[in-house]
Design a protein that fits this description.
- By secondary structure, the protein is mostly helical.
- The chain is built from eight helices and no strands.
- The protein has helices at about 1-25, 35-60, 70-90, 100-115, 135-145, 175-180, 180-190, 205-215.
- It is elongated, with a radius of gyration of 25 Å.
- The mean pLDDT is about 90.
Length: about 220
């Protein structure tokens, strides 16, 4: 939505206004300054939205920022932080240095990071108890193969991924052990993976992954 607004600023205001000013000059007329003022206003808007939009474009790699109930507030804070940092550089180009701007932006980002620090989320419904004899690596690997490997593979078979998202491959036992903490955080604690639960992981499978991790993530 923000990117669409930025495109609209260019397509509906900046470029048409520029064409009208050029046409007026070509006809020997004094161009109406309102078009320049409007173009500058919209350019300033786009300038301050640049960093927030860049973050949103790569945010798919950071589900912790959008998977919670307060995702809207997180986006607002990150947007404000990006604007403060951008304002610092805008002023710096004019020879004005205000260190409090980037420091405030960094403080906001640090606050968001602390707020988003993974905390256990209770599953919906009654607690699921996993029998100890089911907590085996073979069962864990089966879950990973069925629910995760379609994306987290050297050659993903799902979506538009060319390589494994975030470089995390889960095709063999060594990789699963290596990323055990990340699996637990995203699939069990934050419950943000699989994204949109596209592979239909069950609550029992999440519980088994959690039990396996708490048991020390034993291998084969």
């Amino acid at each position: 939505m923000i990117g669409t607004c930025m495109v609209g600023n260019v397509f509906f205001v900046i470029i048409p206004g520029q064409k009208k000013m050029v046409a007026a000059i070509a006809q020997g007329q004094e161009p109406d300054p309102i078009y320049g003022l409007r173009g500058k206003q919209r350019s300033v808007h786009n300038n301050y939205l640049t960093l927030p939009v860049l973050f949103i474009m790569i945010s798919n790699h950071y589900p912790m920022t959008y998977s919670g109930a307060w995702n809207w507030a997180v986006l607002i804070v990150i947007t404000v932080a990006g604007m403060l940092i951008r304002h610092f550089f805008n002023l710096k180009h004019k020879g004005i240095i205000k260190p409090w701007l980037p420091l405030t932006g960094a403080a906001l980002l640090a606050g968001v990071s602390l707020f988003l620090y993974p905390r256990p989320q209770a599953p919906k419904g009654p607690a699921i108890v996993i029998a100890p004899e089911l907590v085996t690596f073979a069962n864990v690997q089966e879950i990973i193969n069925n629910r995760c490997v379609s994306c987290h593979a050297a050659t993903p078979s799902r979506g538009n991924f060319v390589t494994a998202p975030a470089g995390i491959k889960l095709e063999d036992a060594g990789d699963i052990k290596r990323w055990a903490g990340r699996i637990h955080e995203q699939a069990v604690v934050r419950r943000s993976m699989p994204q949109g639960n596209v592979t239909a992981i069950t609550e029992e499978e999440r519980a088994l992954l959690g039990a396996w991790y708490r048991a020390g993530a034993p291998g084969q």
